[in-house]
Amino acid sequence: MVKAGRRWLWGISLLLGALFVGSFAGAAHPAGDMLAAFRIPIALIFALWVIWSPWPYWLRWSAAVLCLAAMGQIVAQSFVAHPPGPVTVYQKNLRFGNDGTEALAEDIRASGADIVALQEVTSRNAALLRDLRADFPYQTSCALTDWARVAVLSRWPAEGEICVTGYGVSGLQVASPGGTFWAISLHGFWPWPYDQPEQMQQILPILAGLDEPAVIAGDFNMVPWSHALRRLAALTGTSRAGALFSSFRTFGMPLPIDHVYAPGGGSAEPRGRLGSDHAGILARVVVFE
User: Fold this and answer.
1) What are the residue ranges spanned by the domains of the chain?
2) pLDDT at residue 5 above 90?
3) What is the DSSP string of 51-99?
4) How much is the mean pLDDT over the chain?
5) Percentage of residues in the chain with pLDDT exceeding 70?
6) What is the rounded CA–CA span in Å between residue 151 and residue 186?
7) Which pTM was predicted?
């Protein structure tokens, strides 16, 4: 019985260790990015478990220290100050069934946003775009599915549009007082077992090949330390705006999966959910460095 118990302890320790290591393996398989979203709880459980495991003393504490270091690296991002930029972006996943958008429209107007990026625009909430047309006369949207769209709204004139149908990208080429740039709304797929790798394969060459700087706002369905978002930032020459904070909860766990990326980064703060399951993001970003 004692030997069987020790085998169970070893087995669970190895499983938790494999999940922790796997959370860094997004470059090898998209399941790694899925695990990366839950790296903090995985690391915490593994650290607490391995301390009491039958592993050798040096191995137990080495593993625990590695887990704590990985957690600390993420938590530290919540306390990093980012200076604001001159372009204000309001990012929001509306939630497909949200038909009470009057308060959201007021919050967007009150925010002083120059650009609004929206996901899950449906027949239930499309009135929001009409309500905001007087403030944001330049609008475009693109189909993600046959019932949901991604959209970009701008108070500045638009000189061009981009739409990647079925892959969650919609954009306006905006003529701002500081220069012309692309304002992109993106709705990312969950990495695994869904189709984020195919989505990124389709959209990253397009985003990296834009002829002007890009501001990319969206529900990325992915945390910023994932391989997919680190690759997106590198290829588009952008940095995530703001300190780390949660924008969504799943199984009661807070997840930072809504972001705004810009060439010079910037500041960001959460806004209310206002009928959605996602918090809004208000970012003040640096486009021209």
Assistant:
1) 2-77, 82-285
2) no
3) HTSSS-HHHHHHHHHHHHHHHHHHHGGGG------SEEEEEEE--TT--
4) 93
5) 98
6) 9
7) 0.93
Query: Letter for the amino acid at 74?
Result: I
- Residue pLDDT, tens place only, 128-162: 999 999 999 999 999 999 999 999 999 999 999 99
Q: Which CA distances in Å does 27 have to 44, 69, 234?
A: 23, 21, 14
Residue with tokens 């403030």: 135
**Contact between residue 151 and residue 118 where contact means Cβ atoms under 8 Å apart:** yes
In the numeric block, the tokens 């625990």 are attached to 64
Token couple for 195: 């189709």
Q: How far apart are CA 262 and CA 238, in angstroms?
A: 5
Digit-coded pLDDT (tens) for 25-73: 999 999 999 999 999 999 999 888 888 777 787 787 888 889 989 999 9
Q: Can you spell out the DSSP letters for 112-181? A: T-SEEEEEEE-TTTTHHHHHTTTT--EEEEEESSSS-EEEEEESS-EEEEEEETTTTEEEEEEEETTEEE
Could you tell me the fold of the domain covering 82-285? Deoxyribonuclease I; Chain A (3.60.10)
Plot region of 194 (φ>0 → left; ψ -120 to 50 → alpha; else → beta): beta
